[in-house]
Amino acid sequence: MPTEPLRMPNYGGQALIEGVLMRGKKTLAAAFRTPDGEIVIQTEELSTVYSRPYFQWPFLRGLLLLWDAMVLGYRYLTISANYQTEEDEKIEGPWLYGTIAVSLVLAIVFFFVLPALLGKWIAGFLDLDASLVNLIEGFIRIGLVIFYLWIIGQSKDIRRVFMYHGAEHKTINAFESHRPLEIQSVQECSMQHPRCGTSFILTVMIVSLFVFFFIGELSLPMMILTRLLLLLPIVMLSYEYIRWTSSHLDNAFVRWLATPNLALQKLTTRTPTDEMVEVALSAFKAMKMNESPSIPT
């Protein structure tokens, strides 16, 4: 009989450049493989924002995931890149946070504003019913996400990041299924995980399709404005959906609902090498040791 997996809804992980970031409830740990083959580990206590009671409330807690992805994750992604570069090429300080801000703006423009413009143009060009504008926009948005993930996955460097992503998933899956945290045991685990950031992104796209469809026809300026104003509520709703599905995968219908999310992870994970799994295990064990007794053993 399989062992019931542990649920860690506050767990967060992210693949880095030649490294992995693992986040618990109170601390995080990142492990990097340096050019000379050494594994370097960095740990830190999380900001007090993670312990604020109102950020544990439904919907508001989804904002922490957004913070992880756009600030905490990007900062450690840059740190990992700095380990691979010369001293005078390192990114830090204002340059780092300026890059985060620019990346956020570009993501909003590319994945929310551009689909709205294209949907409006296509519906007008084909003389389609106005009610179809938002539906077309939604499918364009989903298509852009899938195409973006596929195209960046053609890069050799990004493929290595996706291999570390696979190592991260295998490691947490091993822990949640009570398997030994050893390289061979971890390698036998799945690369799919229901709380993956890739799943979250696709969920945001699908939820936005339904939300904007029911809003109905709007002028182009109002169309763009609603996309910007409703982005955070959509993120919060999507996070609750991800939490709910990951906690009910024993139900056949929920597993069916989660199928698209898990399938998309095939674009963002690759089979890791043993050396990559070693890095992921180093990060996880460092986080777990600092987190104890918050994380069950």
Structure description:
- The protein is α+β, with helices and mostly antiparallel strands.
- The protein has helices at about 60-85, 95-125, 135-150, 155-175, 185, 195-215, 220-230, 230-245, 250-270, 275-290; strands at about 10-15, 20-25, 25-35, 40-45.
- The chain has one domain (about 10-290).
- The chain is built from ten helices and four strands; from the N terminus they run ββββαααααααααα.
- The protein has a four-stranded antiparallel beta sheet with strand order 1-2-3-4, sandwiched between helices.
- Strand 2 and strand 3 (about 25-35) form a beta hairpin.
- Helix 3 runs antiparallel to helix 6 and helix 6 crosses helix 9.
- The longest helix is centred in the middle third of the chain and has 33 residues, at about 95-125.
- The radius of gyration is 20 Å and the shape is globular.
- The protein starts with 11 loop residues before the first strand and ends in a 6-residue tail after the last helix.
